[in-house]
Amino acid sequence: MKTEVKVPGFPESITDGTVVAWHKRPGEAVKRDETLVDIETDKVMFEVPAPEDGTLGEILQPEGATVVAGQVLASIDAATGEPAPAARGNGEDKAPPAQKIVMPAARRLLDEHGLNPDAVQASGKGGRILKEDVLRVLEQKPAAPVLRAVETPARPEPAAAPAAPVTGDIEQRPEQRVPMTRLRARIAERLVEAQHTAAILSTFNEVNMQPVMALRQRYRERFEKEHEVKLGFMSFFIRAVVEGLKKFPVINASVEDKDIVYHGYYDIGVAVSSPRGLVVPIIRDADHIGMAEIERRIAAYADKAKAGTLTLEEISGGTFTITNGGVFGSLLSTPIINPPQSAILGMHKIQERPVVEEGAIVARPMMYLALSYDHRLIDGRDAVQFLVAVKEALEDPARMLLEV
Question: Which of 116, 133, 241, 302 is the most exposed place for a label (fewest CB within 10 A)?
Fold first, then answer.
C-alpha cells in the first residue's frame, strides 16, 4: 500500500515554496514523523514529516523544484512488519551510514567549493550542518578561486611611447554568481517596498549606558542563578520601548489604506541574524512579561534562527521593531522600517566617549540610538519625545522597573 507525501498547507501569505533538501533517498526506510524534506518559502522553512512508517518510494519533486500546497512530493510504501534486509560486505553486517541534515545555505557553500558533508562537523539542532559549520572548514582550508575568462576588446596602439608591460594575467578575474534564497529575495522586496510606500525619516539621540551596565553587573549572577537565563541588554531596551510606546501610542500604530490603526498591545520584533538572512521573531505582549521571560524568549528565538526552525507564527505580526547593529560594531546607522509597522529603533555600539556632567568632562559608555519612522503618520515632535522617553528610561532603569 502506498501513501502519498504531500506539501503541507501554506498560510494565505505564502503561495509556493522550493524543495531544498531531501533527507532520505528512494528505497530507504523511514519512520513516522521523521523529517523527509525541507521546503523553503519566502518567510520560513517547512519540514515535511513522513506520514507513516515504511520505505520511501519515487521522489516526484527533486531539490530545486517549485511546489504548491497539496502537491505530491513522493510516496511511501507501507511497512509490512518484515525487517529490512541488512547490507552485507566482506562477510559482515553493515548498518547504513547516518545521513547528515544539511541546511540550504550550507548546501550551497558545499556545492560551490566541492566539499563533502562528511568533512563538516554539524553544530545545528538535530545534527544539522549550518552555514557557519562550512565556513569554519573553509577558513582552515583555502579555497581555490572560481575563475572565468573575460574577453577584453582590442585597443588602438597609443601614438606615444608604449606603456610599461603589465605583469600578471589580468584577463583571469575571479567572479562568483550565487542565486538569492527566497528569504533574501523577500527581504529585498520588503525593504524596497518600505522605501517606496513610506515617508521615512530618522531622528537620533544618545544614551549613557552606565546605569544599565551597573545594575546588570550588580544583579547578573543572582539573576542567572534564579532564572537560569543570561541577563542581556535587550530586555532593558524592550522594557524602555514599551514605556515609550505607552506614552506615545502613535509610534505603535500603523497605516492601512486611509486609516490609522492604533494597537492596544505591544508585540516587539527583535531583528536576528540567521544563516538564511535577517529574521524578526516577535516578543508578544511584551508589557505583560518580566525581564527573565523576555531574555528566555530571545535566547530561544536566536537558537531557532540559527537552526532555521522558526515558525511562521513566530515571525509574523509585530507592532514595533528593535535592531541591534552594535553587536557587529556599527556606531551609527538609519534602520529601515519593517512594514506595515511605522517605526523601528536602532541600537548601536557602546563606546566610551567624553561627556560633560556638572561642568566636568568625564568618560561614559555611550550608545547612539536611531529612530526611523513613517512621517505620514508620526510627527517629528512625537518621534523625538519618544526617543527621549526611551533614553530617560534607560538612564534611570530602577525607576523604569519600579514603574514610578
Answer: 116
